[in-house]
Amino acid sequence: MKTAISILALPALALIFSATTAVQSAENAPPPPQKVVVHLSHFGDNLHAVNMALKIGTIVAGGDAEVVMFVDLEGVRLADSRQPNDLKWGTSPAISELLAGFLEAGGSVLVCPHCAAAAGLAADDLRKGAKIAEASEIADLFLSAQKVIDY
Q1: What angle do CA 49, 134, 145 make, to 5 degrees?
Q2: Per-residue pLDDT, 28
Q3: E strands, 75-117, where?
Q4: Which fold has domain 35-150?
Q5: 67 vs 146: CA distance, rounded Å
Q6: What are phi and psi of 79, to 5 degrees?
């Protein structure tokens, strides 16, 4: 009888041990990265805003966050390869250098489809790292963001 109880107890102990180990592993796992949206509505009309959006976006992306720069209104021109890429604000590096740094830090650029159409911007005109959004992507982007930084 004792042998039968011992044999039945072994699987139960193994189940308890594996459940405890799984809970400990989940507790020790690093938290998922925060989702941050940098919203940019400017380009040539406010190079200071573009400069700040790219600099802050790069800093936040370097802090292990998932950073997406959502561009709309005049901001879509940041993603337009037909626009000049040597624009500067003050003594800061060119916008093209700041954009390259943002992308290298892991950031991405999502373009408002309505604003892209209004600006005559098609997928073939986009700079590297930019994508014209689908409506569902915009909803998911803002609803899942833990933080939104607006420029």
Answers
A1: 55
A2: 84
A3: 108-111
A4: Hypothetical Protein Ychn; Chain: A, (3.40.1260)
A5: 11
A6: -85, -5
DSSP designation for 39: E
Q: What is the pTM of this model?
A: 0.80
Tokens representing 133 are 């959004």
Rounded Cα–Cα distance for residues 68 and 145 (Å): 9
Amino acid identity of 135?
Answer: A
pLDDT at 24: 58
pLDDT at 27: 76
Report how far apart the first and last C-alpha atoms of the chain are (Å, whole number). 75
Q: Using CB atoms within 10 A of its CB, is residue 73 exposed (0-12), middle (13-18) or buried (19+)?
A: middle
Angle between helices 47-61 and 95-104 (to 10 degrees): 20
Mean pLDDT, the chain cut into blocks of 10 residues (151 residues total)? 54 54 66 95 98 98 95 98 94 97 98 98 97 96 98 98
Write down the pLDDT at residue 49.
98
Residue-level pLDDT at 85? 84
Distance, in Å, from the CA atom of 137 to the CA atom of 70, rounded to the nearest integer, reads: 11
CA dist., res. 98 & res. 89, Å (int): 11
Rounded to whole angstroms, the Cα distance separating 83 from 24 reads 52
Q: Are 95 and 73 in contact (CB under 8 A)?
A: no
